[in-house]
Design a protein that fits this description.
This protein is α/β, with parallel strands linked by helices and 338 residues long. It has two domains: 236 residues, TIM Barrel; 85 residues, no CATH class. It is built from 17 helices and eleven strands. α9 packs across α17. The protein starts with 9 loop residues before the first helix and ends with a helix. It comes from Paeniglutamicibacter antarcticus. Keywords: Flavoprotein, FMN, Oxidoreductase. This is Nitronate monooxygenase.
Length: 338
């Protein structure tokens, strides 16, 4: 496995440890977003010097995994994948299929990662875990997790809605010498500089990459993200309830507000009753997703949607984010001692 180098000062050199282990030149990971982070995005991020992550959803097929993982590896650069622990609890086959393609890093989140983490380590890859509160952070500090991803509630898609990125990042950095990656609400060079200056090993960015040309997202979804404001999202379980998706109740999703969420997000009990009574709502939202009717279908995006634009390539996004170094240098000059 790409072991993390030993260090006499691990807390101050954790960035170098993770970079040495995974081989990226820009400390930018694309989030492993199911439905957006396919092989093309993964490969493009890695080719541009970042670390590309493939998103494996709950319903992905073996053929899809083999095809997309093959594309992800095509850059010749290290890459990784993200899977959901609550799905792997029922079936480890998707993880086994991903591991057959040789990722260097696998993130196992949203549930107990134990059996899956052991399988990843057997393959020789590093294991990461997304955490959204203090209890999950405590679990990630156990020996079977190599990298902690602090996902604040600003982030898009599924996760907890309890703690924002900076408090969670600061807590993690005070508790561990493991590499810590910051996630949630990051979309600009200034945002990356903020978490890197605090001590993060890298920035984990989803929403901005979801709108890139290589993303699997529908063109309408990319345009919706690019046109949204920072206060246009809602955190809710409404979309999962309507689609009858078995996400654990503690993990809602942050998405762009639309007519459906405006109608149902504040009355989940009534929504559950309606879904149980017949198939009308479930059929309507599934049809809306198929035809990209964004007044009904979910567009999972974080608060950083208001800082994102559609139409850029992954390489262009990484080049922009790499400006975090100049931001840090400016801050050092401004606040450095005389």
């Amino acid at each position: 496995m790409p072991e993390l180098p030993e260090s006499n000062s691990a807390k101050t050199k954790s960035v170098d440890k993770l970079q040495q282990a995974l081989g990226y030149t820009e400390p930018i990971f694309n989030a492993s977003m199911a439905g957006a982070a396919g092989g093309a995005l993964t490969a493009a991020v890695s080719a541009a010097g970042g670390f590309g992550m493939l998103g494996i959803g709950g319903g992905t097929t073996k053929d899809w995994i083999d095809t997309e993982a093959g594309i992800a590896a095509s850059s010749g650069r290290p890459w990784g994948a993200g899977l959901m622990a609550w799905v792997l609890d029922k079936n480890l086959k998707p993880l086994e299929q991903v591991l057959a393609h040789g990722p260097s890093f696998v993130c196992i989140s949203f549930g107990e990662p134990g059996p899956a983490a052991a399988l990843v380590h057997e393959s020789g890859a590093l294991v990461g875990m997304q955490v959204g509160n203090a209890a999950e952070l405590s679990r990630a500090l156990e020996d079977d997790i190599d990298v902690v991803i602090c996902r604040g509630n600003e982030g898009g898609g599924h996760g907890r809605n309890e703690v924002s990125t900076l408090p969670l990042l600061q807590l993690a950095l005070s508790k561990t010498e493991k590499p810590v990656v910051a996630a949630g609400g990051l979309a600009t060079a200034a945002g990356v500089a903020a978490v890197m200056g605090a001590g993060a090993s890298a920035a984990w960015i989803g929403t901005r990459f979801a709108a890139t040309t290589e993303s699997l997202s529908h063109p309408g979804i990319k345009e919706a993200i690019g046109g949204a404001g920072i206060d246009d999202t809602v955190y809710t379980r409404a979309f999962d309830i309507a689609q009858r998706i078995d996400w654990p109740v503690e993990f809602g999703g942050r998405a762009l507000r639309n007519d459906f969420s405006d109608s149902w997000a504040q009355d989940l009990e009534a929504l559950g009753d309606a879904v149980r009574s017949d198939d009308v709502l479930t059929n309507s939202i599934n049809q809306a997703r198929a035809r990209a009717d964004l007044s009904v279908a979910p567009v999972y995006a974080g608060q950083s949607a208001g800082l994102s634009s559609a139409g850029l390539s992954a390489a262009e996004v990484i080049a922009d984010l790499a400006g975090f170094r100049a931001v840090l240098q400016q801050a050092a000059r401004r606040w450095g001692s005389a």
